[in-house]
Amino acid sequence: MTGEGVLDLSERLKKAENNCRVSAGQVYGRLYRVNGLCLEARGCVLSTGQRCLIGDDNGVKLEAEVVGFDGGRLFLMPLEPPTSLRSGDWVMPIRTGSRIPVGDELLGRVIDGTGKPLDGLGAIDTKVSTPLESEIINPLRRRPISEPLNVGVRAINAMLTVGKGQRLGLFAGSGVGKSVLLGMMTRYTSAEVTVVGLVGERGREVREFIEHSLGEEGLRRAVVVAAPADSSPVMRLRASRLCHRIAEYFRDQGKDVLLLMDSLTRFAQAQREIALAVGEPPATKGYPPSVFSMLPALVERAGNGENQQGSMTAFYTVLSEGDDQQDPIADAARAILDGHFVLSRELAESGHYPAIDVEQSVSRVMPQVVDKQHLDRALKFRKTLSLYSRNKELLTLGAYRQGTDPEIDQAFSLYPSMSNMLTQGMFEASDFDESVQQLHNLW
Ligand SMILES: Nc1ncnc2c1ncn2[C@@H]1O[C@H](COP(=O)(O)OP(=O)(O)O)[C@@H](O)[C@H]1O
Ligand SMILES: [Mg+2]
Asked: Which candidate, 296, 210, 223, places its Cα nearest to that of 259?
C-alpha cells in the first residue's frame, strides 16, 4: 500500500467516526405502577430529589420528583394531582438542576413552591436565580444573636423579646389568632423583608391571609410562598424549602429578614405522606423517623449569617391544642427552637388578643438581647402575673380578703393595666421603645 493510500484511509476513518458520533441520547423510563400518590418508574436512572416529566404521545402530563428507589425501581411523587396516567407512559428526566428566581422583583408577590406566580400579576422577571438547596453555614461561624428585633407586637417586644437570628415556635390550636398575629408582625416589624410560607393551609385561608391579615401594606415588602392543603406533598415540601431559600437570599444581601412559616406541623405531615408512600415504617404516632431528621435540617437554615451578612429570624407555627403535650411534632419543635410562644384558647375566648400566654411562653435569647433594667422589669411582671393567676380563683370565690397579703393585693390592683399592656388591636403597631416604655410605666 502506498503512503498516499494510508493517509486516505485514515482520513476516511476519521470522517466516518465523526459521522457516527451522536449526542448522548436521552434515556426515557416507563411508568410501571401507580400506588396511591406514589408512582413507580423503571428503565431510567435518576437521583433522589431530581425532577422528571411524565407523558405519552399526546404530550407532557405532569411533573414529578424522585422520592426514593429500590434497585431499578424509581419512586416518584407528582407535583400536581395525577390524572389519567397509564402504564407505559414515558418518564423523562429534567437534566437542568432546579433553580429558583430570586431578587427584589419577588417583593409584593405570591408564588407557589416552584416559584411560579399565583397572584395573576404576570411573570416574575428576576435577574438572579439560585439552586433550591443552599450551603449550610457552619454554626460556629454564624454571628451570635445579640440584638433585639422589633416585631411590632407589644407583648412580644416587652415580655418575650426576639433576637435577630432567633428561631421560634408559635404553638396554637386553630382559630386562636395565629394568622392575625403573623399578619401584624409582617406589617409592623422593623425587619426589612418578610417572607411568609403558607404551607398546608386551606386555600380559602391563604386568600384571607393575603387580603385581610397582610393587606397591601404588609405585602409591599413581603414575599408569600403558598402551597395549600390540596397541593401535593412534594409541592408543600418545596414551598417550605423555597421560603427558606428566599429568606436566605435576602439575608445574604445584608438585610434583616423575618421568616414566618405556617405551619411546621403541615410540613412534617407532608414528609410523613411521602415517607409512608415509599414504604418507610411509621415510628412515633404515625410519623416515620425521616420526619424528625428533616425538621432540624429545615429549621437550622434560619439564623444569622456570617459577619458581612444580615440576619434571618424565623417563626414557625406548630399546631397544638393547649394541653396536648403528646404531639411528637410539638415535642420535636420545642427541642430544636430557641423559644416557644403559646397562644391560649382561654385568652382568645375572653377577647384578650393577641392571645399570647406569657406565663407559658419563653424566649430563650431574651437575656442576651435586652438590658438589665428591661430584664428585671419583665421578670417582675412575670412574678406578679403568676401571683395573680394562682390567686384569682380565691378572689372570684370571695375567699380572699383584701389586706391579707400586700403582694397579692398589688397583683390584683396591677392586673388590669398589665392585661391592658399585653393586648393590642389588629391594626395597632407598637415599636420596641414604646413597648419597653409601657412595661416601665407599670411601676
Ligand atoms: N389582635 C386581634 N384583635 C381582635 N381580634 C382578633 C385578634 N387576633 C385574632 N382575632 C380574632 O380571632 C379570629 C381568628 O383568628 P385567626 O388569626 O384567623 O386564627 P388562626 O389563624 O389561629 O386560625 C379572627 O377572625 C379575629 O376575629
Ligand atoms: Mg390561620
From this structure: 223
